[in-house]
Amino acid sequence: MNEFPPKKSSVRTITGSSGNLSVIESLNDISFEIKRIFYISNMPKESERGFHAHKHTKQFLICLKGSCEVYLELRGKSETIILKENTEGIFIQNEWHIMKNFSEDCILLVLANSHYDEKDYIRNYEEFLKYSNEK
Ligand code: TYD
Fold this sequence. Notes:
5-stranded antiparallel sheet; binds thymidine-5'-diphosphate; mainly beta
């Protein structure tokens, strides 16, 4: 069972006078094999995304630029986490999640352990409550 709320994990970062280099290697720095990478950008200020949970997909979220909030809910508990450093991220798995309060320059990167599969989504909140109580 995954820990809730997730703690922020540091991304291994090599710093120097010419800038930062942050690296995530499958299995060394992250507990899963990365099969998919996507990022969201250009979000209007008032927009909110997500409103779903995944049955099996594991994800690691990093705000590469700017900031945003991630509302998470699992097993009757909820937490909002602010992401604003590109040297840290959060693991999410079965949480109902909503991303919001995007800064204008926000770029949110997601690493996932699975290929895109709509069947892995729970997009109905009532169904999510039922599913997470049964787990
Ligand atoms: P969705 O996961 O609902 O995005 P968000 O939670 O950020 O609002 O996906 C939005 C659309 O993009 C939806 O039509 C499915 C599609 N999509 C893919 O085709 N491949 C992917 O890897 C992802 C994440 C989404």
